[in-house]
Design a protein that fits this description.
about 300 residues, mainly alpha, Recoverin, domain 1, two-stranded antiparallel sheet, elongated
């Protein structure tokens, strides 16, 4: 449907866009004129089509850094801005003689294009930062040791997630989980995606839907905490059944720890008792038509 816009309104809109663009150009000129700006190499590098093409460990470290700093000032974990990036640059020690903050800020603007940065753009940004810092063919490998969340930025999930994941593999925990296998498989079947991309796997939106429907969110843990655990457990963008079990167990360990249950086996058993006592809606949902809409 065509929309008619008065010429005067269109003129005012374009003038405002030009003013904003001129302001950005003036800002970049000011940055370039500062001492130590020098030159920046930002284009002479092999292209990276997708963040998932990175080596597994590097991809996961970049993702953990992104989600940790994206939530420093708010609960929006999808974007970072220049203030977030400055924290990352300073606290991870990314600067050196040939890469000061002035150069880093110019690189940021070359990637952001006047918008906040999502994870895909963040990967491009860090790739350019790494190349500018190391200027070698293996610059991504040299970047990896710097990608460690500082202690002062770590929360209880960051500090304990690897231990929780390991504890989920011990025999007694597996025994407790297996006693609820039928219920957990029904949950996975009902809430897993029916779309083509993640068919019969559990995406983040599916996991959050399940946690909200059974009142785990917000009564026991928050949306943000579920999301953080999801991103730290899974290797891609969705969970298979075994990964779902690990993720749910970690959610239980975190949630029950808040009410003083520190023993891993007792915590997981307690969250499963709570879940099974509120499971009627799951079996009712099972009789609903398949949700074919893709996430």
């Amino acid at each position: 449907m065509d929309i008619e816009i008065p010429w005067e309104q269109l003129y005012d809109t374009k003038v405002q866009e030009i003013r904003e663009l001129k302001g950005e150009i003036d800002n970049l000129k000011s940055l370039c004129s500062q001492p130590g700006a020098g030159s920046i190499s930002i284009n002479k590098r092999p292209s990276l089509k997708s963040p998932s093409e990175l080596p597994g460990d590097l991809y996961k470290k970049l993702r953990d850094i992104f989600f940790r700093y994206a939530t420093v000032f708010s609960c929006n974990e999808n974007f970072i801005d220049l203030t977030h990036f400055r924290l990352i640059f300073n606290e991870l020690g990314l600067g050196k003689k040939d890469l000061n903050w002035t150069k880093a800020e110019l690189i940021y603007y070359s990637v952001s294009k006047r918008t906040n940065i999502d994870f895909e753009k963040f990967v491009r940004l860090m790739k350019k930062i790494a190349y500018q810092r190391f200027k070698t063919t293996n610059y991504l490998e040299k970047l990896e040791p710097l990608l460690k969340i500082p202690d002062k930025r770590m929360d209880v999930i960051d500090k304990n997630i690897q231990q929780w994941i390991e504890e989920c593999q011990i025999g007694r925990v597996k025994e407790v989980m297996s006693s609820y296998d039928e219920l957990l498989r029904v949950i996975f079947s009902v809430f897993s995606s029916k779309g083509v991309k993640y068919q019969n796997r559990l995406g983040l939106s599916n996991l959050l839907e399940f946690c909200s429907d059974c009142k785990i969110v917000p009564a026991i843990v928050s949306h943000l905490e579920v999301s953080r655990i999801f991103h730290m457990v899974e290797d891609g963008e969705s969970l298979g059944y075994e990964e779902f079990l690990t993720t749910f167990a970690c959610i239980g360990i975190l949630g029950m720890g808040k009410i003083g249950i520190q023993n891993t086996v007792h915590a997981i058993d307690k969250i499963l008792v709570i879940l099974s006592g509120n499971s009627e809606f799951i079996y009712n949902k099972k009789n609903q038509p398949p949700r074919w809409k893709e996430n």
